[in-house]
Amino acid sequence: xxxxxxxxxxxxxxxxxxxxxxxxxxxxxxxxxxxxxxxxxxxxxxxxxxxxxxxxxxxxxxxxxxxxxxxxxxxxxxxxxxxxxxxxxxxxxxxxxxxxxxxxxxxxxxxxxxxxxxxxxxxxxxxxxxxxxxxxxxxxxxxxxxxxxxxxxxxxxxxxxxxxxxxxxxxxxxxxxxxxxxxxxxxxxxxxxxxxxxxxxxxxxxxxxxxxxxxxxxxxxxxxxxxxxxxxxxxxxxxxxxxxxxxxxxxxxxxxxxxxxxxxxxxxxxxxxxxxxxxxxxxxxxxxxxxxxxxxxxxxxxxxx
Amino acid sequence: xxxxxxxxxxxxxxxxxxxxxxxxxxxxxxxxxxxxxxxxxxxxxxxxxxxxxxxxxxxxxxxxxxxxxxxxxxxxxxxxxxxxxxxxxxxxxxxxxxxxxxxxxxxxxxxxxxxxxxxxxxxxxxxxxxxxxxxxxxxxxxxxxxxxxxxxxxxxxxxxxxxxxxxxxxxxxxxxxxxxxxxxxxxxxxxxxxxxxxxxxxxxxxxxxxxxxxxxxxxxxxxxxxxxxxxxxxxxxxxxxxxxxxxxxxxxxxxxxxxxxxxxxxxxxxxxxxxxxxxxxxxxxxxxxxxxxxxxxxxxxxxxxxxxxxxxxxxxxxxxxxxxxxxxxxxxxxxxxxxxxxxxxxxxxxxxxxxxxxxxxxxxxxxxxxxxxxxxxxxxxxxxxxxxxxxxxxxxxxxxxxxxxxxxxxxxxxxxxxxxxxxxxxxxxxxxxxx
Lengths: 305, 435
Ligand code: SF4
Ligand code: SF4
Known about the structure:
The structure holds 2 protein chains of 2 kinds.
Chain A: H1 19-41, H2 43-66, H3 77-87, H4 95-110, H5 123-134, H6 162-167, H7 179-191, H8 198-214, H9 219-227, H10 231-238, H11 249-269, H12 276-293
Chain B: E1 21-23, E2 29-33, E3 43-44, E4 51-52, E5 57-60, E6 69-70, E7 75-84, E8 90-98, H1 116-125, H2 138-142, E9 148-155, H3 164-171, H4 173-186, E10 189-197, H5 201-211, E11 217-222, H6 231-239, E12 254-258, H7 259-271, E13 277-283, E14 291-296, H8 301-307, E15 315-320, E16 327-328, E17 342-347, H9 348-351, H10 364-368, H11 375-384, H12 403-407, H13 414-434
Parallel strand pairs in B: 1-14, 9-10, 9-12, 10-11, 13-17
Antiparallel strand pairs in B: 2-8, 3-5, 4-7, 5-6, 7-8, 13-14, 15-16, 15-17
Helix pairs in contact in B: 3-5, 4-7, 11-13
Bound molecules: iron/sulfur cluster (2 copies).
One iron/sulfur cluster binds at residues 369-371, 373, 375, 398-404, 414-415, 418 of chain B.
């Protein structure tokens, strides 16, 4: 009976949810969108996804090797970053640019700041903005293989059909176009409690209300704004990134409303047709302030100094 | 002032609720450490070779806050030697060899209580300490000059596995009622509130029956979330009163008393039998037959496990108390203490801590803290050595309930971090004070 007993500080039980499990859930939630993207845009989309994910993983492994840090690939977060970046790129993006973008996301935005949990801004978003600025050709989107549509819905003159927006029969980035797939992923994340509703609802709701007001109270025009461009993928998958968004419900709502306002302002009056990335990026930067302004109150008010 | 105290869902695992309770008859040696309570060590009043019976005083209360200790078996005193208790402290302990006869000390008689002072003395003499696990001498709580509006009976039993309080409620309600009657007679308490979690249906019925006999007593059914039994949480949930940092329940007109503590007092008031035995829940993934068993205080843990039928797999960890706040013990030779309410043995697999990974800033810890403590910033300040910020983020009100660590996906040992931070803060303050 005298074997060595484990000694540790309480608690002695733990909820079976790990970082790896959370990241796996995000990947699962992105599967419908990924599959839809490949179906809509063809194998070229698959190549973009492959290059982004592969380069991301490789970058993280090499970086950790060089600075002699414990490997962190196991947490799957670099796969999430690579996948999200790919889904935010057009299917005809030059593959070398995809690789450069992925290296930027992982090395510059994530690893140099100290790795998972330490980055200040979202790696995928920042890399996308970096690529947009560095390689201007990206502004030209790819079109669905079987589509004759002219431009992405946000810049086209004629309003697109709602069903086309839902099913992804429009131009845009690989993971932006199929709203149905994105919504399925969002519901999955909510059910699995990986994310809460606050950021997506505040974000999308703000864009909706803003568009409704600007577009002369037209419900369908406002709906087009919600379903077009990178709003859904941004609001559901990127703005909800733990590290770069607030912890409290109130903070999340402030964050979502802020990102929504910036998005709408850029969409209607900015030089770029799309503002989701900038909206999230700016709110990422403001995040520490939102956090401290919306921190929970201490029970009993804390210590009176 | 509305503050929503968060709580978390933990598995109940109340396998032993309402099951038959065996009494352990022993012929082994018991070990009675002089510290089984918070406060000064008790002082031995016997020597090696002395003959003692069940209920014989073997150590009187030390100076200041302390508690006396009584023999839990009949037999001979082997001697007094040092033992290391689970917080690492070395304390003297009295070892008594049982003669297996279980003779009760013939001098035992119900205490004479005539006023508040004699009541407080009786509570002190009973050797009763907070039996919910805290081990704070009970008489101290009652010995207050502050006006007391509520006596709150803690029947929450929010830790997984443990059902020894449920046993008390089901089988010892009379003793609880007796204690309440005596206390109400000499201490001016406006109301008695029995706070109980809603997952204990039969116990609630029993407590309602108890309450029906006295208009001052009421039952408050509480949500089954952890940690409802935390003192500040319970006071808030039953009375709406907020105990501020560094304050005690008495400061808001409340006395909180665990139900088993109360029942043991009731028995002492009635018969004079002090605290010598405990009902403990024996459970956990390595235990063959989970059950509640009444054991003499001081019996070695391994003897209890043997009595209940041993293990079904290799034991990796043994815990005094529940899995959320219990203390892991280094050896099964350790004795059952006054405040031990459960003995859990976990199998090897359940004993291992998950690998700690980097914090992903998910905020789960912050959202789950019952008191709104900013765990992320607290941990960050501690790791950076910025001790001046620890109190601002709420370290002073942390009750080490483990809600934060239980849910952390990065498996960070947050409670350990809070304990270390408290030590560092104290040392830092002392140094600052001297400088
Ligand atoms: S729960 Fe763990 S991983 Fe999440 S913020 Fe808190 S410490 Fe970090
Ligand atoms: S252990 Fe402390 S910080 Fe963690 S949840 Fe409990 S009270 Fe909050």
